[in-house]
UniProtKB/TrEMBL annotation:
Family: Belongs to the UPF0098 family.
Family matches, as PROSITE patterns: PROKAR_LIPOPROTEIN
CDD domains hit by this protein: PEBP_bact_arch
Gene3D superfamilies in alphabetical order: PEBP-like
Organism of this sequence: Spongiactinospora rosea
UniProt name for this protein: YbhB/YbcL family Raf kinase inhibitor-like protein
Amino acid sequence: MGQPRSSAIARRATRSAVVAGALAVVTSACGILGGGGSVLDTISVSSSRISEGAPLPAEYSCTGKRGNPPLRWSGVPTPRTEAVAVVLDNNVAGFDGEVHWVLFNIDPRTTELGDNIAQSMPTGTGQLRLANGKVGYSPPCRPDGNYRFTVYALDRKVEIEEDAPLSDALQRIAERTIARGRLTAVHIE
């Protein structure tokens, strides 16, 4: 009886280590998800459903059924941008962090994503498999999280498969980033 419990604990520890490793890689690479060392151009990020520093509406959390919230951005440096990426992560002090969504190779002429885009992804856009095994938007659950929707302008497309390790994909996004912007929701309603 002790074996299944040990195995489940080991799987959870492995998943936490993978997420922590992925965030560490990206944090060190151009400061993408973390504070950052490089000076990047700035993208303005907004939403009709989320205000900077306000709670994430529960309908976009694991208790809701809406999927992702709508996002809009401006200030992508053209013509240097060949693709856009969007990453949703949770950055809470004392917590390893979680990545809830990674979109990449969005057409640089795209300036917004609609509410719950799972059924209508922009052509050519890829999504990654997350540490929880899900591809696409994985709704946040931690009520005390800091949920960061970050938009990245990339100087070239990211060549990576959906099943690639999260740390590899985040590293490639970091290496290609020329501008970024962020909208942060604090806590869940």
